[in-house]
Design goal:
alpha/beta; Rossmann fold; 2 domains; 7-stranded mixed β-sheet; 14 strands; 42% helix
């Protein structure tokens, strides 16, 4: 277990934010007079981007959970969808000697070396949501994306009676969630009469999803359902269909189910289903506290998931088995 920093925490914070790459997007929990006397550990949090509402919520969940523990200080960094910048952030945290690192990687391969280096130097690393390669990290926290994708596929088969033309709008396919949501989905629809007539990588971004859906609508007169790897993607596809007057003939399904996003879309009838992907922010702080206090944690922490439809949303959704 890494020992507490020898330098005063205020000096460590100044040193960290003076390193190259520290921008206006980087934030730390305000110390205040009480925090200065009670802070024991500094956690560096590297978020792959803040352009997705789900990732903004993850940071908020981490922040709110950490605020319940005055012994913690969390320094947030936004890599702005740049793997090289995120690599540099992990290296900065390592050089500064933070007590623990939480990282939600943009891509697996580019983030594997700096995560492994931090881990080898005795800094615990919690990998959140998206995996890195190998096992040189302390703990991975995330839902089972393949299981969620398969559940979505099975739901779609049932919804369409096993027949129909589908559009698949994929998340970033160099990321493990995108790969797993794709392979799980294909497993879920295997053996049915469903046909994927159009697929594209929309990189998790609503504007990209809308642009790709515009291409699909221009090419195909018959589209029965859109399966998007996240709710912004499904919403972007809906807006493209709305602009052409074809939204009423298409079913839209997404993943994330944030209370202020996907679940609202379900209530409004924009999406017929949204599959929950919990952020893991609170669980990350819980695991960090155990690690910093010398308690054992599981190498893999799998979070449960639910599906929300208009039929079950008032009852809190239905758990995916």
């Amino acid at each position: 277990m890494k020992k507490t920093l020898l330098y005063p925490i205020t000096f460590g914070l100044v040193m960290l934010c003076s390193l190259p790459g520290c921008s206006k997007q980087d934030q730390a929990r305000a110390p205040g007079p009480q925090a200065e006397t009670t802070t024991r550990w500094t956690i560096g949090m590297s978020q792959c981007n803040l352009g997705e509402p789900w990732r903004v919520q993850m940071n908020q969940d981490i922040r709110m959970a950490a605020e319940e523990h005055p012994e913690l200080r969390v320094i947030f960094k936004d890599s702005q969808n740049d793997s090289l910048k995120q690599r540099a952030q992990i290296e900065e945290f390592t050089s500064a000697g933070v007590d623990l690192i939480i990282v939600s990687p943009k891509e697996a391969a580019p983030l594997t070396p700096p995560v492994a280096e931090a881990f080898d130097k005795g800094i615990p690393v919690i990998v959140l949501d998206r995996r890195v390669l190998g096992d040189r990290y302390t703990c991975f926290i995330g839902a089972d994306n393949k299981r969620i994708g398969k559940a979505a596929g099975e739901w779609i088969v049932k919804r369409l009676g096993g027949q129909g033309n589908l559009v698949e709008l994929k998340g970033l396919m160099t990321s493990t969630p995108g790969q797993d949501r794709h392979s799980g989905f294909r497993e879920g629809i295997r053996g049915s009469g469903l046909e994927i007539i159009f697929e594209a990588d929309m990189k998790w971004l609503e504007p990209e999803a809308r642009k790709e859906m515009e291409s699909a609508l221009a090419r195909f007169d018959s589209i029965d359902l859109v399966y998007a790897h996240n709710d912004p993607g499904a919403h972007g596809a809906y807006l493209a269909a709305l602009a052409t007057g074809r939204e009423k003939g298409i079913v839209f399904v997404g993943i994330d189910a944030l209370s202020q996003e996907g679940r609202i879309y379900v209530r409004q009838g924009i999406l017929e289903a949204s599959f929950e992907y919990p952020t893991g922010g609170r669980e990350a702080i819980r695991a960090a506290l155990d690690i910093l206090n010398g308690k054992p944690v599981d190498k893999e922490i799998t979070l449960p998931s639910r599906v929300f439809t208009q039929a079950n949303i008032s009852e809190g959704g239905e758990w995916i088995q």
